[in-house]
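ugh ok so i messed up the first submission bc i forgot one of the chains. this is the corrected input, ALL of the components this time, i swear. 345 residues overall. if the numbers dont match what u have on ur side tell me asap before i send this to the collaborators (the ones from the other lab, u know who)
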Amino acid sequence: MHKVADIDVQHNITKANKKIADRITKKLNDSNIFGVDFVGAIGSGKTSLIEELIQRMDGNIGVIAGDVISKFDAGRFKKFNIPVVGLNTGKECHLDAHLVEHAIEDMPLDNIDYLLVENVGNLICPVDFDLGSHIRVVVISVSEGDDTVEKHPLIFQSADLVIINKVDIAGAVEADVGKMVNDVKVLNPDVEVIKTSLKKEIGLSNVINAIDRFKKRMDL
Amino acid sequence: MHELAMAESILNAVIEKSEENHANEVIEVIIEIGKMTMLNGEQIIFMLEVLSEDTMANGAKFIVEEIPIEVKCLGCGFDGKLGSDDLDPYTPLPKCPKCGNLKVNVKNGKDLIVKNIVIDKQSKL
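and heres the new structure output, hopefully the right one now
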């Protein structure tokens, strides 16, 4: 005999990610690790920035490299002889907490002070996916156009630190860096915006200092 | 956007709950989509129909209900829902419909929820 049943499910998929993210934050706190999530546009310089941070920051760094095909970025980090876990997202456009939690299983948590997570190049999809890191750094560059900020407001509202990279070529691509900074400030008045050129070594020490200020504030 | 990943998560939740309740077949699924998620309901339904083909949810009716955005303004104190005209689809930034302030707490509209399922189950009788 068949019976039809009406079942109240109330399964919140968004909150399921947040629950895992909170578990990640706790794990990082328990291991005294400061987690930084790097999101940004394709080609904005996320990987190059992390390469510079690996070489210049005090303390041991581990990296989770998320990408459509992660071996390229992961390979760039591995040459520094640090713990690196590559996350292939395939056709997926963002990392989620579930993927990151598994990647952390392969991280030697006792031996690192910072966990840097490089998200997939995308300014839209990562917005809703908390990865449990302590801060989110949004990286863009002038070559994406100086209207990038106003076209992607939500990611800038979710940022703890914003980096505008490749400012040395702003003139060549006719981008108004001042406009980009102002656009960020309208969306997120209290956020720190740092202008960098990784090629010309501009602004990098400001980025390192800013990350360390956040770390100290968290008492990690 | 990431409708495929979301559709997979929805289907997993539906199948899990259906198995828990000893279902043979899923007849109907009601999904609530918060407007702030910017997820496209029609795309989600299409993907669910494709993904569910070899599962007990094959042929189920997938229904999407929209959750409006509710904000509390940190400026003027407005507390309520945003109307459909208050959110520009090209710059989906919630702001206070009363004073225009961008500093608002989004109280509702960010979630994706599997609300309800109707299943057919084999009775022991």
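quick check: The first strand of chain A starts at residue 2 and ends at 12. that seems consistent at least. The longest helix of chain A spans residues 13-30.
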